[in-house]
């Protein structure tokens, strides 16, 4: 089978930075508590567990409760999706040492919201309720409305801030709605890595008969990548696979050529393994 590999694919800079910080801490300390998933890739998390990482996934619980359960004096890493600054105060009060692995794009979104509030503008947040990044933003800025859930401002000036992993169609829909309220709307799109991977879909060659998106079902940016592909190419079969092992369950035998990409939380090594598996078909 012929395989067209889309570029870019795989880990984004924020994910690489978070993993590097975790591994560096484990190498020096031998143990580490991580608040939240760190990255949405179970293979990466399992590898870090074997190195001594303990993941604290609060689920529906308050993140403060999870921090309160970390033994005093421990090393705590805040994941790439951001966190409420109140957790820093709580951790310090309990004698915890902390590492902040917040993605720079996530941090810039928080700074944009903070500046808008100071300047009298009205931020609106577009995100997936329950996602770690969305939870962090709404915890830090509880008065900011979540698009699709809360009432929107009745007048401008409005700032639309998007979760870094959202699909471009979702952002455009929210932007169109808010432009009716404020024709001068300022909009912060998903991060460059998310946007670049979605735009790379436009380079799928005409003779490609299917697209395979590698990544986990819990990865928001991976799902957005898949949905973007389906919107752009309604007649193109699009498959989501978590890795090489999942490829065997897909109906790929009839295709002579496929395009291959992955979400921003998918490692390079399993990507290459999946590519080799496809080329052997």
In words, what does this structure look like?
The mean pLDDT is 92. The chain has 281 residues and is of the alpha/beta class. The protein contains eleven helices and eleven strands. The strands form three sheets. Strands 1-11-9-10 form a four-stranded parallel β-sheet, sandwiched between helices.
- Total strand segments: 11
N- and C-termini, Cα separation: 5 Å
Strand content: 15-25%
The Cα radius of gyration reads 20 Å
> pLDDT below 50 for ≥5 consecutive residues: which ranges?
none
Describe the strand arrangement of the main beta sheet, using strand numbers. Answer: 1-11-9-10
| Tally of individual helices | 11
Helix coverage percent: 40-55%
Overall SS class: alpha/beta
Main sheet characteristics: 4 strands, parallel
How much is the average pLDDT? 92
> What spatial form do the alpha-carbon principal axes imply?
flat
SSE arrangement, N to C: EHEHEHEHEHEHEHEHEHEHEH
Ordered list of secondary-structure elements with their pairings:
Layout: E1 2-5, H1 13-29, E2 32-35, H2 42-50, E3 53-56, H3 63-68, E4 75-78, H4 86-93, E5 97-100, H5 104-118, E6 122-126, H6 132-140, E7 158-162, H7 168-179, E8 186-188, H8 192-199, E9 211-214, H9 220-232, E10 238-241, H10 244-247, E11 257-262, H11 268-279
Index terms:
281 residues; four-stranded parallel beta sheet; 17% strand; 11 helices
């Amino acid at each position: 089978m012929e395989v067209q590999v889309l570029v870019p694919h795989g880990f984004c800079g924020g994910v690489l930075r978070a993993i590097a910080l975790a591994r560096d801490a484990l190498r020096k300390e031998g143990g580490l508590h991580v608040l939240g998933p760190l990255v949405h890739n179970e293979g990466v998390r399992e590898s870090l567990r074997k190195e001594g990482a303990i993941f604290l996934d609060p689920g529906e619980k308050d993140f403060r409760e999870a921090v309160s359960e970390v033994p005093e004096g421990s090393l705590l890493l805040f994941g790439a999706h951001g966190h409420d600054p109140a957790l820093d105060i709580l951790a310090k009060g309990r004698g915890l040492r902390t590492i902040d692995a917040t993605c720079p794009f996530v941090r810039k979104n928080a700074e944009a919201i903070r500046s808008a509030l100071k300047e009298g503008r009205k931020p609106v947040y577009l995100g997936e309720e329950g996602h770690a990044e969305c939870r962090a933003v709404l915890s830090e800025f509880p008065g900011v409305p979540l698009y699709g859930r809360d009432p929107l401002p009745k007048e401008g000036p409005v700032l639309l801030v998007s979760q870094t992993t959202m699909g471009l169609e979702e952002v455009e829909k929210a932007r169109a709605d808010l432009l009716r309220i404020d024709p001068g709307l300022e909009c912060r799109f998903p991060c460059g890595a998310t946007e670049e991977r979605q735009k790379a879909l436009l380079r799928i060659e005409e003779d490609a008969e299917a697209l395979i998106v590698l990544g986990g079902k819990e990865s928001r940016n991976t799902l957005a990548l898949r949905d973007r592909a389906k919107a752009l190419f309604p007649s193109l079969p699009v498959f989501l696979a978590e890795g090489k092992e999942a490829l065997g369950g897909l109906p790929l035998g009839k295709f002579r050529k496929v395009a291959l990409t992955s979400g921003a939380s998918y490692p390079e090594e399993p990507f290459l393994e999946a590519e080799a598996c496809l080329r052997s078909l």
